[in-house]
Structure formats: structure tokens, C-alpha cells
Amino acid sequence: MAQVATTTTPQRTALYDCHVELGAKMVDFAGWEMPIEYAGILKEHEAVRTSAGLFDLSHMGEIWVSGPAALDYLQSLFTNDLSKIEVGKCQYGCMCNAEGKVLDDMIIYRFTNKYLVVMNASNREKIVAWMKTKWVSNTKLDEQSFQTSLIAIQGPKAQELLQPHVSLDLETIPYYGFKDGKAVGIQALISRTGYTGEDGFELYLPWAEAATVWRTLVALEGVEPVGLGARDTLRLESGYALYGHELSDAITPLDASLGWVTKLDKNFVGRDALKAYKEAGVQRCLIGLDMDGKTIPREGYPIHHEGRQVGVVTSGTFSPTLKRGIALGSVETALRAEGTEIEVEIRGRNERAKVTRLPFVKGSVRGRS
Amino acid sequence: MIPDELRYTEEHEWVRLQGDVAEIGITHFAQDQLGDIVFVELPAVGFKLQTGKRFGVVESVKTVSELYSPLDGEVVEINSVLSQDSDSFDPEAVNREPYGAGWMIKAKVANTGDVDKLLDAKGYASHTEGH
Fold first, then answer.
1. d(Cα A107, Cα A256) in Å, to the nearest integer?
2. What is the CATH T-level fold of the domain A16-60+146-237, as seen in this structure?
3. What are A282-293's pLDDT values in tens digits?
4. Structural domain boundaries of chain A?
5. In 10 A of CB A237, how many CB atoms?
6. Does A128 have pLDDT greater than 60?
7. Cross-chain Cβ contact A229/B39 below 8 Å
8. Could B35 and A317 be called an inter-chain contact, meaning their C-beta atoms sit closer than 8 Å?
9. Which of A52, A80, A258, B25 would you label with B35, given CA atoms 20 to 30 Å apart?
10. What is the pLDDT of residues A143-171, one digit of tens each?
11. Please, what is the Cα angle at A50 between A47 and A51, to 5 degrees?
12. Would an 8 Å CB–CB cutoff place B62 in contact with chain A?
């Protein structure tokens, strides 16, 4: 497996100047100089839960797969089953190594004669290299990460606010569906997808023209620019996994409770290992964890049950919606039942918490694919 | 945003000395770096402060940051709006008024002369320059 190269100078998206003009705090994230916050995480989070937020996700990786063998090729790498979705729909899943450990989680879009794979920025180089080593004849791989900008608009009012600025009827795009159209006069791939638990859209745009779209949408009444800080609190309240936290190449998708996107009745790299692991008994699961008090669980804090460590917090935060600490944690499978009483060790003290149903916050999202 | 009359540490605490009691908080620079503050953990009255040692924790939405004592002394009062059990719990006071309503603790100072060893406003300003 190829090692991810570490770049010393962070890359900038086509929207860098827009972020600076808006007074964003910029941070280095996965080799990109990205906005962490503008007006503050709490305010941005609330905007997405009550109205709409605009996100720059141009750091994410995109690779097109085409050719007569494209479907078979992707099926051989992807844990989910692409043959089950129609043209115009997309699907969430993972790619694993031969041991069934997660290389990345991603969304794959199905077009008539081609596919678009959208991956995490932190794994872009690893996945592109992996896909090249697994290349088969009659497939064409075309990475477009540096030609493709990605802007998300998310929130209960996202559709009504975006509608006047697009060339198609957004109502005709179902959850995890997409269409080609124009956004602010710019050719765009428009999908009803997101990572916030709210309804909303993601717009894939030509790099050079993305700023036009951003400037128009961010100026709308009811739309706030949202940085990576609130993106994290929003996805955590929604119970969504993030690679490097809930997912890594040390665990299988089954350990992260992603059995629902791991189709062991089809063949893919890692399938045999996962099948054997499932038969032997999956050892860990991902749980939602709700604190009783006001302390805040953070990544890496130990989770205890009946006097012994049973797992670890994978992501934790103050929930801006619930006004208390929440977390996702990896624990022994036996502790997955809702209501199970556990303790999180915070600065040497065991603080009471309960295993809770995910998502923590049910937003306006139309369904989960 | 660096009041002249206060003293500072390199770890971004400020000290306001009145008689032999020091009021202690975190600076505007610190609260701005942290972002929205949602939780503060402070010691009980009577806790013995030691210069450079941890006396509490301040948490923003995204991060945890330790508080280090600028002085030796004994805690005589904590700011009730930062107490998680208080009806007036309002940790964002630290964001709004870091040198006022967002103060953290008051301590009886062991040796008031130690305050002079801390950074003055000019020294702290040069410490945070370029950030």
C-alpha cells in the first residue's frame, strides 16, 4: 500500500479568498488550508439546524471510472453493492484491504456509462494509488480532484433558498439522487446528499467557476458560511462516522457498525476476511453515548463498564443542539443495547453516560441510504 | 484588547491584584483562539495554587485547554457563572467579557511581589504578536 505523502505547504481551494474575505479562521486540514469557523461554531451550527449553511468541501477527492469493465471493477473494490442502485443515484460504502480493514469510506455516483467516486481528502492519495494498483483492462481512471470544487448547502431551508438559483426542479432529486444542471449559471452536478443530518444539496463545480456560485449563495438571507468546526458537531449529532476517528485501517467496517453497507454476498477485496470475522463474532461496535452531567467526552477517553475498560471514545463534543456532551465510541459488542449504563473517564474521574440511539438529533434529512 | 492594568502569563492567563487578592482569568487572545466556550472546570475554595501548575480546564466546542496558575496562593472564590451546577451557568461570559464577567477565580496570594514577575501588557502584547 502506498504511503500518503505529507505536503509541507497546504493546498488552497478555489474559494480561499472568499473565506478570508468573510473573516474565517483558517487551519491546515489534510494538507488543505480550510476554514474552521467564521462567526463561531455555535452560531454556524444553529444556522444549519434552523435555516441553511454553506460549506466548502473542495478538498475532497474525486475520481471518474469509465469503460466497459467499470462496474465490475468498482464492485470488486467497494463493500456496498452498486448493482442495486439505478443511474442517477449514489451509494455510501467503503473500500477495504485484503484483511477487511477500512481504507476509506466514500460515495459512488452512478451515471449511464461512468461512475464518480468521492473520497475523503485525508485518504485521496492512498485511494487513488490503491485504485491504480487494482486497475483492470477496459476501465479508465480519471482523477479530477484539482479540477472539481464542491460546495454544500445544508439545512431545512436549503431547497427553498437554492431553488431560484438552479436550472432544474430540486424536488425531482430524491435523497441520494443527483442530476446535471446549472447552479448560478454554472454547469453543476447537483446531488441531494450531505453530512449534517439536514436536507440539502452538494454541488460539484468546475474549479475556476466555483467562487461565482459561492458568492451568490453566501449572500442570500438565511444562508451562513459554515466551517469544519460546525461540520464536525453536525455530523456527530447525526451519528455519522469520520475516517481517522470511527474508521481506520486498524478496524473493519463491521467493527464500526457499517454492516449495512458491507454486502458479504458479493465479492470484493476483503470480503473473505470479513466473512470469516463475522462468523467468528464481531468484537466491537460503534455506539452513541449521552452524558448525564455537563462534562464533555473527547476522543481517546476510556469507556468503562462494571469496573473495567470496555472501549474508547472515537469522537466527542459539546452538542450545540442538546447543550451537553455527546460522543461516538467503539466498545465491546455486548454493550450495544440502548440504555446500557457506562462511564467515561474524564481527567481521572468516571462520569456517568448511557448508550443511546443514533442519531442524537433527528434533522430534516429525507432518509438514510 | 490587552488592558494596561493587568499582568499576564505566557499561557494566556491574566491577573488583577487588589490588596493581597488576585482575580484570575484568561485573555481575549485565549478566548478568541478557543472559540465558543461551553465548559469550565475550576477548583474548590481552599485549593492551593502553585505557580505553573494546573488549576482547571476550559473547554470550547472543539477543544480542551488547561489552566495554569500564575501564582502561589489559595482559592477564596470561584465565579459562579462558570459552575456547571449553577442556575446562572454561562460559560460564554468568558468569550464576551474575558476581563470582566468571565473572570475565573480569586485567590489570596502568598507573596504579592510575585505579581511583578509576570508579563506586563507590553510584554504580553509582544508574546502574542504574529499569531
1. 17
2. Gyrase A; domain 2 (3.30.1360)
3. 999 999 999 998
4. 16-60+146-237, 62-143, 283-356
5. 25
6. yes
7. no
8. no
9. A52
10. 999 999 999 999 999 999 999 999 999 99
11. 70
12. yes
pLDDT at A3: 44
The three grid cell numbers given for residue B15, joined into one nine-digit string: 491577573
Specify the 3-state DSSP secondary structure of A226. coil
Nearest chain A Cα to B31, which residue? A40
Domain B7-121 sits in CATH at: 2.40.50.100
Contacts of A37 in chain B (CB under 8 A): 35
Of B36, B57, B84, the CB nearest to A347: B57
Percentage above 90 pLDDT, chain A = 96
Closest-CA distance, A42 to chain B, in angstroms, reads 7
- In angstroms, the separation between the Cα of residue A229 and the nearest Cα of chain B is 7
Architecture of the domain whose range is A283-356:
Beta Barrel (2.40)
CA angle A199, A217, A31 (to 5 degrees): 80
Predicted confidence at residue A8, as pLDDT, reads 66
pLDDT band with cut points at 50, 70 and 90 for residue A346:
very high
Q: Which of B 91-130 lie inside 8 A of A, CB atoms?
A: none
Q: What mean pLDDT value characterizes chain A?
A: 96
B86: confidence class by pLDDT, cuts 50, 70, 90: confident
Question: How does residue A220 score in pLDDT terms, banded at 50, 70 and 90?
Answer: very high
Q: A62-143 domain in CATH 3.30.70.1400?
A: yes
